Here is the input.
Amino acid sequence: MTAPGHHHTLEIRNLSVRAGGTEILSGINADIRCGEVTALVGPNGAGKTTLLLAILGLVPYTGEIRFCRAAEHGEGAPRIGYVPQRLDFDRNTPMTVLDFFALSSQRYPVIFGHSARSRRSARESLTRVDADHLVSRPLGKLSGGELQRILLALALRDNPDILLLDEPVSGVDLSGEALFCDFLGKIHSETRFSLLLVSHDLSVVGRHADRVICLNRRIICQGATTEMLTPENLEAMYGSGAHLVSHGPAEEHGHLHGPPASGESEGKKG
Amino acid sequence: MTVESLLAPLFSAMGHLLPFGFAEPLFMKRAIVALLCVAPAAAAVGVPLVHFRMAFFSDAIGHSAFTGVAIGVLLGVHPLLTMVAFGLFVAWAITLVKGRTELSPDTVIGVFFSTVIALGIAVISAQKGLTRNLQAYLYGDLLAVSETELLWMAALLFGVAAYLFLAFNRIMLIGVHEGFAKSMGVPVRALEISFALVVALVVTTAIRAVGILLVTALLVVPAASARNIARGAVSAFWGAVAIAVASGLSGIAASYYLDTATGATVVLFAAAFFAVTAMLKGIFGG
Here is the structure.
């Protein structure tokens, strides 16, 4: 279903974000191609989350973000799915997974119960990510990996044109990570939405991404994955001393280890 | 049709529904109706408020009433009107500043909190006769509620119910994650401001019942108690409303016989619900 000639789903032109007097992102020009997996990589504080928030319209920016909808996806504004890095809700919140789904799928308040339609839609979405057994569990009692599967199921429910994934494997154990990536690969090959993936994990990027955008407050480089992850580019992005390490001969999981972090962390508004 | 004739059938019906000594005098009937409007409205708003971790916000709005009343007396306007208006203004200002700064929300609220109190104290200290007036607002004066105020409280209850009917789902979604809610098409900023304003309306109205010092309890304690035992959104919400009504009725009855301040007694009953539900959670593992 991928359109030939690379339609762009998203075109970012000369985008800058300032907060508290500092420039978090400057002069960003990038394209997200239709149906492709684009990875956004860069060190902590590079502005990766901020770029996603700008695309979502949650931080003020200058420049332009254009959404282009391919004709075969129908009329109207493109739908954006978003899986945040972590949820900032209170773990004691009395809310089941079904409640959480119903919040966005039924008109009347969930305090009056769940409509048959929202029950059905929740079950369908959860089955898609093999998580239908979680439907009546409290949201706060789920593990990191389970929660990410729920969020993924919800983000995919309305068939998004673009899916934004912020650090999909952070805080998740290795098996959970593999599971998550497998689901994502499977679902993506079925529906071919455009995927913008923020990741620290270059082995995930290497295995799943068609294209890479290297970011450190500005675009360092962008292009096909195989051409971009070169030692020169990594050094330009993370500073000298950056190298790929592997966690064992049998495993392909590699993590990028940069020089010691400057203590700068990427905040929510960041 | 006068306000009195509007409420007369309700009061006579109450004689049959609550055939107890404490519910006989007219001022007690008014107080009970007032509480049955204000307590559920406060508890209902309290559910998303606790979900949002906004207890401190509601406290700041409560304390802004101090200044609102003082301004009313200064300008010769009815203090209730200026209290509500000033509460709405402070709620709007806090929400606006919170969205435009990198400071944490509790820091922003802390700054507003102390500023409004300082302003209130400055105005009050310059107006000698005001301190006596203020007592009713500090501790609440449920037994002196007028029938016009009763209608206002009933309107508030319906208003809150209508607002929550339209916005509850989306507000809860924002409480889980702002960006996630936005990606689901929720108008985050508009709902944040509207919710802050609804909280301000409820808080300033509830001050009449329990006073500035205790008003946050009316919003937070029933929701927190229900949270101890609720498994999902349905039980959390209706549990909070039921606990608010139960502690309202038992508090007002107890205050009649014990001759204690009504607002404080109601809050003590709500706190007892919290203690019991917390123990149940401990026993059954929540």
